[in-house]
Design goal:
Layout lengths: L3 H17 L6 E14 L5 E7 L7 E10 L5 E5 L4 E8 L4 E14 L1 E2 L12 H4 L16 H11 L5 H15 L1 E2 L15 H7 L1 E2 L1 H14 L4 E8 L14 E8 L3 E5 L1 H6 L11 H5 L11 H6 L3 E2 L3 E6 L5 E2 L13 E5 L2 E2 L3 E11 L3
Parallel strand pairs: 8-9
Antiparallel strand pairs: 1-6, 1-18, 2-5, 2-16, 3-6, 4-5, 4-15, 7-13, 10-11, 10-14, 11-12, 16-17
Helix pairs in contact: 3-6, 4-6, 5-6
Length: 360
């Protein structure tokens, strides 16, 4: 493994780790309001609603959760990845707007990981046992001969998961452009698609991470996706939806699941020219605004995740409980609604927030 490529990647990773490792992880606290409106059509017999809720984990402490809904209190629901939801089932509801409002406080910690390649090692059979769903395709995360050939070209014979994952990260940054850089010409897919990202060389966060997952999984690296939202600094206290965002984790033996966000990293690469058209979109794509290209931020988002986030769900091609009538749910970034057994997209979600304690 003593190749020039190993040395270059290792030096870059250690430099990035050192640059962000001087202080402890940052922490911030937010008051959030999460709203859902469903436009129920005339004649609907059964309306079923799964609404995402903030997930608590080692980096997120969700507090003071309150739910307001004229239709009554929700039931608890889950999915096969262990995500939890608020669930309503309405029989013969009146036509019009269903509305649910949740409020909560969240204390969110920055995620920092050890990305020294020497901290991990090649996978053993025991490491990969039970990892099948993190190594295979999904509906929009394809693994075919093109992807396998591309993975082999990018990774070569590299067996260290951290070095291999960084090689894929760098390839995506060099070959794919985030659509907000030129919104008049570059377009995202509506589904989050490897195919779209590979063929058009552009996309949104889910397109970027679909392609990354396809390549990574084809290279034998277990990789999983998280859906959440930023608490975007420029929108603090404003009546403006935060939309959604996604990021990834790859498995490094001896270290654990290591996060990365190659989509946001692409905003900080050299060569991004701000214009009147793209500046607002680029500014509101990042966690806390945009100050221009920044190689340190490109390195940062391999192994670290900022504290300005909330987690809604993990995984794709989800099976819900109570069971949905339609096929696997592509992703749960906002909500999933069925009316009379068919998926229904006539809903709006809005997330707003106020930062109440800033990161030190």
């Amino acid at each position: 493994m003593g190749s020039v490529r190993w040395s270059v990647v290792t030096c870059a990773l250690l430099a990035a780790s050192a640059a962000h490792g001087g202080d402890g992880p940052k922490q911030a606290t937010f008051d959030a309001k999460h709203e859902l409106e469903v436009a129920i059509p005339e004649g609907a017999q059964v309306v079923r609603i799964w609404f995402t809720e903030p997930q608590s984990d080692a980096h997120s402490d969700v507090r003071k959760m309150k739910i307001e809904c004229a239709a009554g209190n929700p039931s608890a629901a889950r999915d096969d990845e262990g995500n939890t939801y608020l669930y309503w089932e309405l029989k013969k509801p009146a036509a019009g707007a269903f509305k649910a409002v949740t409020t909560f406080e969240i204390v969110r910690k920055e995620v920092r990981m050890n990305i020294d390649p020497a901290a991990t090692r090649p996978y053993t059979e025991a490491d990969l046992k039970g990892m099948e769903k993190y190594l295979g395709p999904t509906q929009y995360v394809i693994i075919d001969d093109r992807i396998r050939d591309l993975a082999a070209k990018i990774v070569g014979g590299e067996k260290n998961p951290t070095v291999a994952a960084r090689l894929i990260y760098d390839w995506v940054l060099e070959n794919i452009e985030y659509w907000v850089k030129d919104p008049a010409k570059l377009k995202a897919s509506p589904t989050g698609s490897t195919e779209h990202c590979l063929t058009t060389k552009t996309g949104n966060c889910t397109d970027f991470h679909s392609l990354y997952m396809s390549i990574s999984r084809a290279a034998g690296i277990p990789t999983r996706i998280t859906y959440g939202s930023f608490f975007k600094g420029p929108l603090d206290g404003q009546d403006a939806d935060q939309s959604y965002h996604c990021w990834l984790e790859y498995l490094a033996p001896g270290v654990g699941w290591v996060p990365l966000d190659v989509a946001i990293a692409d905003i900080f690469v050299d060569g991004v020219t701000l214009t009147d058209e793209n500046k607002p979109k680029i500014t509101l794509t990042t966690a806390d605004g945009y100050g221009g290209p920044d190689p340190k931020m490109v390195d940062y988002y391999f192994g670290n995740i900022d504290e300005r986030r909330v987690v809604w769900s993990h995984g794709r091609d989800l099976s819900l409980d109570p069971k949905q009538a339609g096929g696997p749910v592509n992703a749960m970034a906002k909500a999933y609604v069925e009316i009379d057994g068919k998926p229904f997209d006539g809903y709006k979600r809005k997330l707003t927030f106020k930062e109440i304690r800033k990161a030190p």
